[in-house]
């Protein structure tokens, strides 16, 4: 994502300040994202995508790379965070897929979620535990998930995830892009006007 946000911002003739205001982040943090010095969370990425009026996956792949059918082999997942990341580590999947209403990631939650803030964003999330055990933490309760277990929830609900045990779990995360649904609905009903 290093220069993708900057490229999209410049294509829209937006200043750093304008995009930062629309996405609800500071100008200095946005600058760090654009220079590759900081990797935004999924929630912030969703805010940036909404502010740029693009599907979430467009932040991670160039438009020229997008295709109708995308296969991501196990060894080809693109790391979106460094191996040393203390928080959740993300790997991109199907980044080259064309227009879609959900974005898949393989994530490896931290063992200690204490310092990780709760996140919330538009859309919905689907979690499937591929390996290990994880705990979905909500303000009102926690839900333990083992291999093969899944959870589906509104992403507007504050949430975070941690691995249980001695090593990080591998969790498939599907994030729906509520913004993409609006565009899909508009395409299906040409007379529909978007706000």
UniProtKB/TrEMBL annotation:
InterPro entries associated with the record: Cro/C1-type_HTH (IPR001387), Cupin_2 (IPR013096), Lambda_DNA-bd_dom_sf (IPR010982), RmlC-like_jellyroll (IPR014710), RmlC_Cupin_sf (IPR011051), TransReg_Diox_bact_type (IPR050807)
Gene Ontology CC terms, in alphabetical order: cytosol
The keyword DNA-binding appears for this protein: yes
GO MF annotation list: DNA binding; DNA-binding transcription factor activity
Key word DNA-binding present: yes
Gene3D superfamilies on file: Jelly Rolls, lambda repressor-like DNA-binding domains
Family matches, as SMART domains: HTH_XRE
Name of protein: Helix-turn-helix domain-containing protein
Lineage of source species: Bacteria, Bacillati, Actinomycetota, Actinomycetes, Kitasatosporales
């Amino acid at each position: 994502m290093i220069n993708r946000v900057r490229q999209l911002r410049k294509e829209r003739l937006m200043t750093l300040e304008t995009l930062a205001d629309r996405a609800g982040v500071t100008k200095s943090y946005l600058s760090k994202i654009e220079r590759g010095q900081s990797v935004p969370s999924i929630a912030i990425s969703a805010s940036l995508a909404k502010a740029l009026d693009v599907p979430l996956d467009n932040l991670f792949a160039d438009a020229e790379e997008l295709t109708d059918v995308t296969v991501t082999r196990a060894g080809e997942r693109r790391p979106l965070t460094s191996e040393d990341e203390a928080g959740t580590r993300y790997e991109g999947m199907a980044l080259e897929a064309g227009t879609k209403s959900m974005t898949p990631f393989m994530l490896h939650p931290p063992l200690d979620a204490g310092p990780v803030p709760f996140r919330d964003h538009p859309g919905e999330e689907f979690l499937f535990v591929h390996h290990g055990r994880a705990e979905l933490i909500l303000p009102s309760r926690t839900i333990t998930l083992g291999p093969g277990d899944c959870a589906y929830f509104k992403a507007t609900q504050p949430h975070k995830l941690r691995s249980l045990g001695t090593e990080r779990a591998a969790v498939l995360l599907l994030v729906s892009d509520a913004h993409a649904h609006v565009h899909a609905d508009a395409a299906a009903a040409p007379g529909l006007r978007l706000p």
